[in-house]
Write a structure and sequence with these properties.
139 residues; alpha+beta; N-terminal domain of TfIIb; GMP Synthetase, Chain A, domain 3; 2 domains; three-stranded antiparallel beta sheet; three-stranded mixed beta sheet; 3 helices; 6 strands; globular; Organic hydroperoxide resistance protein; OHR
């Protein structure tokens, strides 16, 4: 169920100049980065790129969701990390992305870790937003 405007707790605002070969900045000045296509896509690779920014946001959001789930399950996830790998490639109608989420949770057994990651995937806002739109693999 989509949230309503009245339910919004925070809104991030970013503006891009010159698309994939320019600059992206937030309205509060906390993020201001040069973006360039990666060398693999014919760019200079000298700046960051939208896929890196998406990977950063997704991994941080997923780690937060993992924390929520762990608290609900009374699981200790101290020292855990979440890595998002975001790939871009050609598809039938231009380009698409694919994501691999991997979590390292040293304080729990593999079965518990897998269950926590699956539950986090159900509650993470990025996972919800991408569900049915892109392939997301959990590792």
């Amino acid at each position: 169920m989509p949230i309503q405007q009245s339910d919004v707790l925070y809104t991030a605002v970013a503006t891009a100049e010159n698309g994939r070969d320019g600059r992206v900045a937030t309205d509060d000045g906390k993020l201001d980065v040069v973006v360039n296509p990666p060398k693999e896509m014919g760019g200079s690779g000298s700046g960051t790129n939208p896929e890196q920014l998406f990977a950063a946001g997704y991994s941080a959001c997923f780690q937060g969701a993992l924390g929520v789930v762990a608290r609900q399950e009374n699981a200790d996830i101290s020292g855990s990390t979440v890595t998002a790998k975001v790939g871009i490639g050609k598809n039938d109608d231009g380009f698409g992305i694919i994501v691999e989420i991997s979590a390292d949770i040293p304080g729990v057994d593999e079965t518990t870790a897998k269950a926590l990651v699956e539950k986090a995937h159900q509650v993470c806002p990025y996972s919800k937003a991408t569900r049915g739109n892109i392939t997301v693999t959990l590792v």
